[in-house]
Amino acid sequence: MRINELQSPAAASSWCAQQRASGKSVGFVPTMGALHAGHLSLVERALSENDVACVSVFVNPLQFDEATDLETYPRDWEGDAKRLGSVGCQMVFTGSLAQFFEGELESDGALAPERLLAPGRGALGLEGACRTGHFEGVATIVDRLFEVVHPDRAYFGQKDFQQTLVVEEVARRRGAPQIVVCPISREESGLARSSRNERLRPQERERAVCLSRGLSRASHRWQHGLRDLRSLEAEILAELEVAGVQVEYAAIRERSAWSPESPVEDLHDPVALVAARLGQVRLIDNHLLGEVPPHPASAFKGLEFSSRP
Ligand code: PAF
Question: Global pTM?
C-alpha cells in the first residue's frame, strides 16, 4: 500500500482521527526530515507496537538558534516519503509554521515569545545553555504535534538525551502520549546517526568518531570502577582533543535526576554527554556509562582497562 503524503496538519489530524475511530492505535515519530536509518528504526519500532505509524516532517524554525543552521538543514521530502513507504509507514505529513499555529502568528510571521512553552527542568544546562531558546521551540512544536496526531505512543531517539526529558515533560503535562525512548543508532564507525552528518566533509566524518570514542573510554573506565566525575570527563576530553574538534561540553549527569550542574552526590546510573563542532557542523552524542560502549576496550591501544584505577 502506498504511503499517504499529507501536506497540512489539518489533513493529518483527520487521517489520525479516522484511525482512532476505527479502533486503531497510532504510533508517531516526529522528525525534521532528511531521514536516515536511525529514523527508520524508530518507525519500525512504532509499527511493531501500534496498528499504524505516522511521521511528521517539519524543519521547525522555533528551535533553531542559528539562522545558517536553519537554512542549511537538509531537506528531502520526496526521498523521505519513499524511505518511509519502504518500511510500511502509513502516513507522513508536513505543514508550514502558519499552518501549525493558524491565526497565532504575529504580523512579522513569528510566534510571540509568550506563546512558547516552558520546557521544564531537562532543558537546564548543557544543550539548553549552549542553544538559547532551543528547547522552548522543541516543547512548543512537540505539544502542537501531539495535539494534531493524538498518538498512543511517540518515539524519540536517545541521541537527543535532553530532548527526551523535555518531551517527557510535555507528555506528562498533557497526560499523553506514552514516550518511547529508543537506543542511539550508530554507523559502523561508532558515529551516532544524525541528519547533520550529511554536511560533514569526508575527513571531518572520520574525525567525528572521536565523540563516540570519548564516550566509550569513559564507559570502560566506569565499568572498571572509576567513579570520579572529573576523571571520567577527562577520558572523553582526551579523545576530543586528539581529534582537534571544538568542544562545547563533555559532561556526566545522573540519568534519572537531571541537574544543570555536575552532580555532587555519588553517581549511580550516569550518562555522559558531549557536544563538539567540526567546521560548520555541530554534533552531539551521549552514552549510558553502564551499558555496552560503542567501541570495545581493544580500540584503545595503550589504555589499561583490565585493572582497577
Ligand atoms: O528531534 C527532532 O528531529 C526535532 O527536535 C523534533 C522532535 C522533531 C521537534 O522538531
Answer: 0.97
What is the position in ligand 1's atom list of the atom closest to the CA of 56?
8
CB-side exposure of 205: number of CA atoms within 13 Å? 14
Tell me how far the alpha carbon of residue 36 is from its chain's centroid: 13
| Residue 167 CA, closest ligand 1 atom number | 7
C-alpha closest to that of 150 among 234, 84, 54:
54
Indicate if the alpha-carbon torsion angle 147, 148, 152, 155 is positive or negative: negative
pLDDT (tens digit per residue) in 111-159: 999 999 999 999 999 999 999 999 999 999 999 999 999 999 999 999 9
CA angle, corner 189, sides to 200 and 272, nearest 5? Answer: 85
**Percentage of residues of the chain with pLDDT beyond 90:** 96
39 a catalytic residue: yes
The mean of the pLDDT values for the chain is: 96
Domains and CATH numbers, the chain: 4-182 (3.40.50.620), 195-299 (3.30.1300.10)
Note the pLDDT tens digit of each residue in 164-208. 999 999 999 999 999 999 999 999 999 999 999 999 999 999 999
Q: How far apart are CA 14 and CA 111, in angstroms?
A: 25
- Does the Cβ of 239 fall within 6 Å of ligand 1? no
Helices (H), 150-286: 161-174, 202-207, 209-223, 229-243
